[in-house]
Every structure is written in structure tokens, then in C-alpha cells.
Automatic annotation (TrEMBL):
This is DUF2945 domain-containing protein. InterPro entries: Hva1_TUDOR. It holds the Pfam family Hva1_TUDOR. Residues 12-70 form the Hypervirulence associated protein TUDOR domain. Residues 1-76 are annotated as: Disordered. Residues 1-14, 26-38 have a biased composition (Basic and acidic residues).
């Protein structure tokens, strides 16, 4: 994802990210734009530096990632 926001993911987008050296796929659940608790940790996000809660297709677990860690796979 580029930093301009143009290619940032949106809710429902299919994305992939690296987990322990392997690629994991899932869907964007929500965009986080403020400091909050999500996926079992404190997320220090802001409108200028949002983070995204994603749900793994394989495990069903949620995780939070910065846009640079996510690769769009298209909408599903």
C-alpha cells in the first residue's frame, strides 16, 4: 500500500499480510483512526496514520496492521 492513502484498504477488502514468514489472507473488518484496544492490544492509530483490523481466513482470529503491511487482493 502506498502512503498517499490512494491504495489503502477499505472494509470488506480481501488482503494479505506476512505472519511468521508465511502469507496470510483475510478481510478488512474496520479502519482504526484513534488510540484504542483491538485484537488484544493497544493500537496507537490516528486519522493521519490509521491502522486496519483484519480477520484471518484460516484461523478466524483478528489482527491489526498498518497499511504498509497489507497487500490488497481485491474485494470478495
Amino acid at each position: 500500500m502506498n502512503a498517499s492513502g490512494k491504495d489503502r484498504p477499505a472494509k470488506g477488502d480481501k488482503v494479505a499480510w506476512s505472519t511468521h514468514g508465511t502469507e496470510t489472507t483475510g478481510k478488512v473488518e474496520k479502519k482504526i483512526t484513534e488510540r484504542t484496544e483491538a485484537a488484544g492490544r493497544t493500537v496507537d492509530a490516528s486519522p493521519e496514520e490509521p491502522q486496519y483490523e483484519v480477520r484471518s481466513d484460516k484461523s478466524g482470529q483478528t489482527a491489526v496492521h498498518k497499511p504498509a503491511a497489507l497487500k490488497k487482493k481485491g474485494k470478495s
